[in-house]
Amino acid sequence: MLELRPNCECCDRDLPPASPNAYICSFECTFCGDCRSRLPGERCPNCGGELVRRPIRPTEKLAANPPASARTLKPGGCPPAF
């Protein structure tokens, strides 16, 4: 099951479970659409993987399957766009 991480790793923007602006790689590194568009090739800066739109978990499933609460933030932010 996806963790549904609560924030963008680059800018720390909140990305709630219903956000259509959340993008993840296969390791669930999580980025907002703005930061994704600035990443080289729109690829994950951690693993180089494809960043795809994160699915939205139905609201009625959140109580039994809550999103993650731990925030992840890259210490130096993300690299600047080329």
TrEMBL record:
<protein>
    <submittedName>
        <fullName>DUF1272 domain-containing protein</fullName>
    </submittedName>
</protein>
<feature type="region of interest" description="Disordered">
    <location>
        <begin position="61"/>
        <end position="82"/>
    </location>
</feature>
<dbReference type="Pfam" id="PF06906">
    <property type="entry name" value="DUF1272"/>
</dbReference>
<dbReference type="InterPro" id="IPR010696">
    <property type="entry name" value="DUF1272"/>
</dbReference>
